[in-house]
Amino acid sequence: MRFTNVKGCSDLRAKYPKLPVVHVSDLNSYRYCRRKWDFCSYMRQNLERVDEPIEAFWFGTGIHFGLEDLHGYKEFPSAAAAFEFFVMATEGSRPDTWREALELGKAMLDYYELEWLTNRRDYQTVWIDKTPLVEVDFQCLIRRNGRPFAIFEGIFDGVLKDAYHRFWLAEYKTAKRMSTSGKLENDTQITAYTYAAEKIFGTQFEGIVHQQHLKDTPSIPQVLKTGGISKNKQIKTTFALYKKALVDYYGEGKIPSDYDEMLNMLLENEQENGNGFVWRNLVRRNPMELASFEKHLIMMVSEMISKKLPIYPNSSHMAGCMCDFKSVCLAMDEGSDYGFILDNEFARRDRDKRTDWRAKAAELGQKIKKGGEN
Q: What b/e sequence results for 70-98 when a residue is b if at least 16 CB atoms lie within 10 Å of its CB, and e otherwise?
């Protein structure tokens, strides 16, 4: 099966300048709180904070860059090296904790590339016209009653093909705690991106390979002062690392049987989909789910562009804890000068600014590569 309609990713904004442009973040924020949506949506004020960069977003961008290069052009020696160049390229905009984050990110990507992937079935990145489909900026035209109605935009982390020639999208996440629950069944992004992929490429997609990377790395088992290797079941390690520690200490074929329980426990944690450090969920969407999403999307956008749409806050404990605009919202309801907060703490998003580090990272990589050749 071959892709069709690949050129559907042409600049739809230029072709349809009057159509509303929608992102998954717009859909989520609209459901979450209309006032927040009004502040942050690309369709409305398009504001973001201008103070210290959010470490989680910065770190996740770097991990994505490492995975993008590993599964794409491989312009850097390793995924960890790509992450290091990302950190160098973001000098001036990186958080104060960048040194600790640098070591953690490199260790996470080294573990993934050198150990985790070697023991598992990998998905192949799809290439079109000698270009790997990683970090793909996409645009999808939404039609209502056969007429152009809206433009849906986003970024595919990757377009993949499995051993049975089925197509998938990749979605990478970093997390402090791994989640293998069923929350992804209702995940809007998974449905929306699968829908967009089928529209753009003109072929069926199974769904998304949702891959979580724990913000931690396996520990080397401790050698006890009394002799032997620790049997602490709370240790964050893997079967391979623990087995290696035992072999290094006792010798091949000489591991005492009283370690069997520990080894079996760690072995049970190693599954085809992952372990406690990297975990994949294969999330599928069927044609009925995608058709339902299209209907709901048109309904929501119809509301969003209505001139009579009322804007009001979702005043709840959870909403306040997770909202960048909490201080603005409180000032509005108290009758205070919320405009002062907006003018001093927020600014309109710059689409190009989010990726201006890419050219610098590539330039730094080329300089070091040429230096190594001399």
A: bbbeeebebbbbbbbbbbbbbeeebbeeb
Q: Are 138 and 271 members of one domain? A: no
Question: 188-201 and 287-304 helices cross at what angle (nearest 10)?
Answer: 100
Closest C-alpha to 142, from 306, 300, 6, 310: 300
From 248, 276, 304, the end of a domain falls on 276
Q: Which amino acid is at 268?
A: E
Q: Which of 172, 139, 145 is nearest to 72 (CA)?
A: 172
Q: Which range scores top for mean pLDDT: 1-5, 301-305, 368-372?
A: 301-305
Distance from C-alpha of 253 to C-alpha of 178, rounded to nearest angstrom: 34
Write the DSSP symbol of residue 271: B
Question: CA 100, 108, 158, 21 torsion: positive or negative?
Answer: negative
- Give residue 355's domain range: 6-214+277-368
Inside any domain, residue 24 = yes
pLDDT tens-place string over residues 109-165: 999 999 999 888 779 999 998 999 999 999 999 999 999 999 999 999 999 999 999
